[in-house]
Every structure is written in C-alpha cells, then in structure tokens.
Amino acid sequence: MSDNRPFSPIRRRGLMLVLSSPSGAGKTTIARELLATDDKLDMSVSATTRPPRPGEVKGRDYHFVDIATFERMVAAGEMLEHAKVFDNYYGTPAKPVREALASGKDVLFDIDWQGTQQLGQSARGDLVSIFILPPAVEELERRLKSRAQDSDEVVRKRMAKAGDEMSHWPEYDYIVVNHHLDSSVASVKAILAAERLKRERQVGLPDFVNGLRSKT
Amino acid sequence: MSDNRPFSPIRRRGLMLVLSSPSGAGKTTIARELLATDDKLDMSVSATTRPPRPGEVKGRDYHFVDIATFERMVAAGEMLEHAKVFDNYYGTPAKPVREALASGKDVLFDIDWQGTQQLGQSARGDLVSIFILPPAVEELERRLKSRAQDSDEVVRKRMAKAGDEMSHWPEYDYIVVNHHLDSSVASVKAILAAERLKRERQVGLPDFVNGLRSKT
Question: What is the pLDDT of residue A108?
Fold first, then answer.
C-alpha cells in the first residue's frame, strides 16, 4: 500500500458497488479498469440457466444451473435479484455476496436499473450505486455504431432503448458523466474509496476508539 | 483539469466539508494541504468579538465585529453556529456560506463536535463531516508534546480532553485514521471528490439528461 492512497487500518464491512448505464456509455471498460487495479474488489458472478458458450468458464463467467435449481433458489430467497431474458433466467446468488461483505471484500455488479432496484430491496445499507452517462448523444451513437456492424435500424433501436434507460438516473446515488475514460475511472475509484471510509462500514471502529480512549 | 482526476461537467451545488478531530490528530495539516491543491474549496472565515492579534488580517483570519453586532446576528439567525469561549464570541456567518454553496463552491470548516452539531441543524443536506483519529495514543501524546513546551500537567489535561473529544466520532459521516499524512490527505480528497458526484448535488443533471434524451 503506497502512502498517497486512501487507507484505513480499521476492520470494515464490504459494500456492493453497482455500475449501470445505457449501453455504449463506457461502463464495461470502467469496470474492467477498476477490477484490474483493486484487489479488494471482485466481480459478482451471476447464475444462469442458459448453456455455457464456447470459452466460458464455470464459476468465473457464470454459475450454470438447471431451471429447477434456479427456481428453488428464487423461492428460497437465495437470489438477491433475478430476471428472465427470453427463455433463460439470470440472477445473483446471495450467499457468495454475503460472505464477501462479511469478510470486508467489495463486490462489483454490472446490472441494469431493474436489477439495481431488486438489490436495493434486500441490501440498502450495503449498496452504492453509480449511473454512468454519456457526455453527448453523438458520442453514444458513435460508440454503438463502432461496436458492431449493425444496420441503421438496429442502431436506432439501441439509441431509443438507451434514452429509456437514461431516464432512471434519479434512482442512483452517484452520477458520473463519462467525458474521458481516465477521469471517469478516477471518479469511480474516489467514490469507492470514500464509501469505504464511511463510519458505518468501518465496523472495527468502536473497539479501536475504546482502545485509544482507555489510554488518555 | 487533467484527465486522470475525478471530474463532472454538470453544474452543481457546493457542500460544507467539516473536519473535526482531537487536537494533535493532524487535522490542521490536512486542511492546509487540501486548500492548497483545490481551487473549488475555500476556508470558512469565522466572526469573532475578540480584538485582532498582531498579524491577523480582517476578513481573511476573522471577521472582527463588536458584541452588539454579534448578538444581533445570532438573534436574526445570521450565524450557522456560534460559541462563547471565555469572554469572546466566535461564530460562522451564514451569508457567505450560502452564497458559496449556490455558486458551486465548497466551504471547509475546522470546528469541533459542538459546532458540527449546530451546523447540522440548519444545513443537513449540504454537510459532509469527517472525523480524524490518531493512529495511536502514543502518537497523539508525541504530537501534543512536540507542539509546545508545556508542562506534563498541561499535556495530561490535553490528553484527557482529546479522549473526551474522540467520544464524538459516531456523529460523523466519515472516519479517517491519520496513519500517514499523505494517505489521509488522499482519503479526504476522495471523500470530497465522491460527495461532489452525488446525484443530488449535481443540480444541472435534469437539464443535461433531458438534453441527451431529446436526441435519442
């Protein structure tokens, strides 16, 4: 740990960091950069009922489960959030997240506003949510066009969907406008560092301060 | 503005950043470092009824006012917080703070837990409070001893007072343990950067998002 980075010696509870954005706003690149530079932060691994695709690794990309197992987990309250997309279920198993938080590790979620709303119902105090906005619509369009060789019609549909997704910004704690990738990464890092320093997350503080005060 | 620092192009409301700590924990050094490197942050200037000391500059170190003026301001609700120390009044005039916040500037307060409680009554949503703790009592004692050539008796009294002040940490939003000055400064900077990115402070967001959505 270098001396010029935020730091606390106090035992703390982990947090759930949610990044949401309309597609094309840069969220995935920011998430990748965060994960590469922060060893206290892990990506949440979703469970899904769809079959693995070539190259996907079980337990790293997804937990692959059958429909009966998935439905049992939902019924038993073992999913923090879940959704059905076409014929497949996707969801976040609660147990690994609860274990990470208790051990002081943070968990990163790349989910949409619906998943964020569901997470918030079971985990409000642990949740830190960030909405990434594009700096301009032209930039969003440029990114959506460059990402895939899609038809104009597909790009138009994606733009309309992005506009709809953007309407959910008021449901988030923090808003980052992705002007420059480096400064957006710095913004998200600052948010993560600050949230780690919140009083209520530093669960070792009562003992620490009692120790200090006993000697004054 | 360099590209690797947190940044938002959105018009925002300023915030009130409170730093409190037992004396000797390093708060004043941290505050000085912050002010030197952040041109959106200004120190709050208190009003006082005590006479200026040699070298003190009116309006920079204090606003010097007479007792009648001070009492009239308190009665008219023009002080965000105030206290009487021996025969002198000290307080924070509301007007310059309100003007700074409205113009998107942040104001730094170096005040104790009593002042912080008073500020919180009139300005809860604008207030961000940080409590600085020493890493160990021995370090606190060392700093208190090195600061002045005081008798053991005076140092003992200061240590007891520090212990009492430390009991107020649960009233603060963030807790920073001042292990290393550089990392504590980085911690406070991260808190300030994050709080600036809070949704509700970025008052230009509704217009900005409406502008984006109108083109999708």
Answer: 97
pLDDT confidence tier of residue A69, bands split at 50, 70 and 90 = very high
Q: Where are the domains of chain B?
A: 16-204
Interface pTM, i.e. ipTM = 0.93
Q: What average pLDDT values come out for chain B (216 residues) when binned by 10 residues? A: 80 97 90 95 96 94 96 96 93 96 96 93 91 91 76 85 93 96 96 98 95 88
Of A1, A163, A186, the CB nearest to B216: A163
Name every chain A residue with its beta carbon within 8 A of the beta carbon of B5: 183, 186
Of A60, A16, A25, A53, residue with least CA distance to A177: A25
- Report the topology of domain A16-210: Rossmann fold (3.40.50)
Statement: residue A196 has pLDDT above 60:
yes
Q: What is the DSSP string of A31-43?
A: HHHHHHH-TTEEE
**How deeply is B194 buried, as exposed, middle or buried, from its count of CB atoms within 10 A (0-12, 13-18, 19+)?**
buried
Do B174 and A160 count as a contact with CB atoms less than 8 A apart? no
| A174–B183 CB contact, under 8 Å | no
pLDDT of residue B145: 81
In total, the C-beta contacts within 8 angstroms joining chain A to chain B are 164
Which of the following CATH numbers is that of domain B16-204: 3.40.50.300, 2.10.109.10, 3.90.1280.20, 3.40.50.20? 3.40.50.300
Segments of chain B assigned E as strands? 16-20, 41-43, 46-48, 62-64, 79-85, 88-93, 106-110, 127-133, 174-177
Encoding tokens for residue B161?
């007072």
Whether A156 contacts A144, CB under 8 Å: no
